[in-house]
Amino acid sequence: MNMKKKGIKLILSFSFLLIISLGCLEQPEIMDKPENNTKSVENLSLKYPNFTSTTIVSSFEKSVKKSEQKVVLVDPTVLRFRAGVFLSNKTAVNKIRFKLFKPDGTEINSSNYNYFPNVSYTEEDFLISYIVDRPEIGEWIEELEFLSDKPNGVSIMPPVLGTPLIIETETSSYLYFLEDEVDIRTSVIAMSQIYVSDLSVTGKISTPDGKVLDAEFYDDGQNGDYKAEDSLYTYVLKNTTSSGFYYVIVTAKGKINGIHPFKREESLGFEIAD
Q1: What is the pTM of this model?
Q2: 25 burial class (0-12, 13-18, 19+ CB within 10 angstroms)?
Q3: Which residues partner with 267 through β-bridges?
Q4: What does the pLDDT look like over 91-100, one tens digit per residue?
Q5: How many Cβ atoms from other residues are within 10 Å of residue 202's Cβ?
Q6: Domains in the chain, ordered, with CATH?
Q7: What is the C-alpha to C-alpha distance for residues 105 and 136, in angstroms, rounded to an integer?
Q8: What are the angstrom distances between the C-alpha of 81 and each of 72, 135, 163, 235, 252?
Q9: Fewer CB within 10 Å of terminal CB in the chain, N or C?
Q10: What's the pLDDT tens digit per position in 163-181?
């Protein structure tokens, strides 16, 4: 009985997904294509009429006694990003401070953000967030400081980026059955003036029984990949012996025009039924 449906992507982003209107913005200034060591992704382009949105994850995460930090890697294609903290209890806003640090170490907070013309700040019942237009290239730090013990239900949300360089990940279905093989496919999509090199795609798969599996995606026409060097990377999950919900995080890393490092991440989920 074929109960397979189109895979449903569970994007790691705010529940209120930021709608970034970038069609009216100037295109980012990208260096000319290097002569060597690059790979065009123009053939992947879906010819988006405007820039689209995706998420980028921290290059590292750490917890310290009184704060939590996440680092957001901003590359030259990023025109805007939104960073925020989710509050399951709106009274928690009085127990925390949420700050941003620019790549040069300059602190941005709720008291001084007005001094930065490209930064806006919003404080709502269940959300504190910053929007940064035309952010400086480099590592931005999000810091969540606790004024006492960490309140329950408070977490830094994955930033939402406005960028013309994204990844898209999918499965052929949302529902599978025990012992089915699950093909997970990821592609990098970029505007025609952006060239990607040194690309690698990996993943982490959380299983219903609490395991975390490492996944390496291939574009070699083997290992479950359909066609070599078509910029569609594939990982095949075999031996699905545990029923329940599987959660996948896919990470793509590489260089833009052979120079600037970038990192993109997307997530999805699927279910294995008995």
Answers
A1: 0.66
A2: middle
A3: 249
A4: 888 899 999 9
A5: 16
A6: 52-163 (2.60.120.380), 165-273 (2.60.40.1930)
A7: 12
A8: 10, 8, 9, 30, 19
A9: N
A10: 999 999 999 999 999 999 9
